[in-house]
UniProtKB/TrEMBL annotation:
It comes from the Eukaryota. InterPro entries: CYRIA/CYRIB_Rac1-bd, Cytoplasmic_FMR1-int. One of its GO terms (cellular component) is cytoplasm. GO terms for biological process: regulation of actin filament polymerization. Coiled coil: none annotated. Belongs to the CYFIP family. Residues 20-189 form the CYRIA/CYRIB Rac1 binding domain. This is Cytoplasmic FMR1-interacting protein 2. It holds the Pfam family CYRIA-B_Rac1-bd. The gene is LOC102740760. It comes from Leptonychotes weddellii. GO terms for molecular function: small GTPase binding.
Length: 528
């Protein structure tokens, strides 16, 4: 929205001849963005109401006796994380407030907001953007009127503590989400109605464990190049001042977590250990001749799963190290006293990025990146193999076979099975669209034409089968029912049943994914 400020700066005085044109251009540029801000204000209001209604439902005296699943608690935790992120983004983006003010002045000059409703909405948006922590305050106020809300939030915080302590996360964003939910959850619980230190005394929550987590990882990424200090949630809580001696994470200190050079010893060891294990398994597969078609035991499949999971966890761990060091550096910029190469006239962003890394840290970042990219290419009996390319080839072959099987099923049925063909093609199209976000595949149309034998010919398998069914089954054996507006099969057939190929037996994952959806889809086709 910063472009609107440029237009506004051109208006020097009310007597400026082209001020009307400038104001019109300002409104034209900023109006779509202000509309988004308005929708954002209504969204956060509706989200808070929805979240509080769920909390109220689960905190009912009778509902508290029921079991709340971990998945549901984590979903509520994601809600809390969303509120924390949105509020921090709103607080940090001062340009949004400035541009909205510029739009408001231009719109008032052009009398774009003449009706009382527009004026009131604009005023509400101005107050929403001007008040820091507006989302947090509204959420806190609405939660405090719900009896027993702190019990449910305690369950959410405890599940996040358990997941973080046992490393039950995969991506860096999941790891950082757990930490933010712990901090923001404690802030929401500590207020006029509830006291987190009394809950700690009752062993309802474990503050010392959370303090240890926040001590180890003081700064986490928030969104993009923005970050947040976890201790800030504790410092701004209602009863912090009289209990500050219980917290060590609020004291200024440097955690070894942010020294990437010290972490490199463990990173190298983990990298060598995993590469050796992966190479040992890959070479044994080639030597023994076992491949995809060989049947393995459940234990062997479990070992494969654990190996793949361990590789993903290592990649996630290294990525998290890089993100956390980068976030910590942004919060703690250097100066000319700490770094002699940093000039006194350097901008704050330069002090946080350009001059804030030593040569050893830069080389460590390059090495971590190289280790992560190394998983794309593996050495197998002296040959370099691009795993990404191999996986892409396998996925492409599976996609082609899935399309081929969908058309084969259509060729083995009468014309009514075109409904199922449409479903299968839509499933494959969606799968292709999701996979293309992570790998390079041929276009879906190209794959479909190849499976349909329609690359060079003007017609394909589907067209030929439709033509065959129309001539030898549909036209002789169907009549039109005017009352229901559909074609129905006649009671007495006028031709022999056409000979069709028997459909091949294929694995469920080539069709609907598993047996249960496949059986349900078969029933739906019969009913349709």
């Amino acid at each position: 929205m910063s472009s609107g400020t440029l237009f506004q700066e051109l208006v020097k005085c009310n007597e400026q001849p082209n001020r009307v044109e400038i104001y019109e251009k300002t409104v034209e540029v900023l109006e779509p963005e202000v509309t988004k801000l308005m929708k954002f204000m209504y969204f956060q209001r509706k989200a808070i109401e929805r979240f509080c209604s769920e909390v109220k439902r689960l905190c009912h005296a009778e509902r508290r006796k029921d079991f709340v699943s971990e998945a549901y608690l984590l979903t509520l935790g994601k809600f809390i994380n969303m509120f924390a992120v949105l509020d921090e983004l709103k607080n940090m983006k001062c340009s949004v407030k400035n541009d909205h003010s510029a739009y408001k002045r231009a719109a008032q000059f052009l009398r774009k907001m003449a009706d009382p409703q527009s004026i009131q909405e604009s005023q509400n948006l101005s107050m929403f953007l001007a008040n820091h922590n507006r989302i947090t305050q509204c959420l806190h106020q609405q939660l405090e009127v719900i009896p027993g809300y702190e019990e449910l939030l305690s369950d959410i915080v405890n599940i996040c503590v358990d997941y973080y302590e046992n490393k039950m996360y995969l991506t860096p964003s999941e790891k950082h989400m757990l930490l933010k939910v712990m901090g923001f959850g404690l802030y929401l619980m500590d207020g006029n109605v509830s006291n987190i230190y009394k809950l700690d005394a009752k062993k309802r929550i474990n503050l010392s464990k959370i303090d240890k987590f926040f001590k180890q990882l003081q700064v986490v990424p928030l969104f993009g190049d923005m970050q947040i200090e976890l201790a800030r949630y504790i410092k701004t809580s209602a009863h912090y001042e009289e209990n500050k001696s219980k917290w060590t994470c609020t004291q200024s200190s440097i955690s070894p977590q942010y020294n990437i050079c010290e972490q490199m010893v463990q990173i190298r060891d983990d990298h060598i250990r995993f590469i050796s294990e992966l190479a040992r398994y890959s070479n044994s597969e080639v030597v023994t001749g076992s491949g995809l078609d060989s049947q393995k035991s459940d234990e062997e499949y479990r070992e494969l799963f654990d190996l793949a999971l361990r590789g993903l966890q290592l990649l996630s761990k290294w990525s998290a190290h890089v993100m956390e060091v980068y976030s910590w550096k942004l919060v703690h910029p250097t100066d000319k006293f700490c770094n002699k190469d940093c000039p006194g006239t350097a901008e704050e962003y330069e002090r946080a990025t350009r001059y804030n890394y030593t040569s050893e840290e830069k080389f460590a970042f390059v090495e971590v990146g190289a280790d992560s990219l190394h998983y794309r290419v593996k050495l197998l009996l002296g040959r370099s193999i691009d795993l990404n390319r191999l996986i892409t080839q396998r996925i492409s072959a599976a996609m082609y076979k899935s399309l081929d099987q969908a058309i084969s099923r259509f060729e083995s049925e009468d014309l009514t099975s075109i409904v199922e063909l449409e479903w299968l093609l839509e499933i494959n199209r969606l799968t292709h669209r999701l996979l293309c976000k992570h790998m390079t595949l041929d276009s879906f149309d190209a794959m479909f034409r190849e499976a349909n034998h329609n690359v060079s010919a003007p017609y394909g398998r589907i067209t030929l089968h439709v033509f065959w069914e129309l001539n030898f089954d549909f036209l002789p054996n169907y009549c039109y029912n005017g009352s229901t507006n559909r074609f129905v099969r006649t009671a007495i057939p006028f031709t022999q049943e056409p000979q069709r190929d028997k459909p091949a037996n294929v694995q469920p994952y080539y069709l609907y994914g598993s047996k249960s959806p496949q059986q349900q889809r078969g029933l739906d086709v019969c009913l349709s």
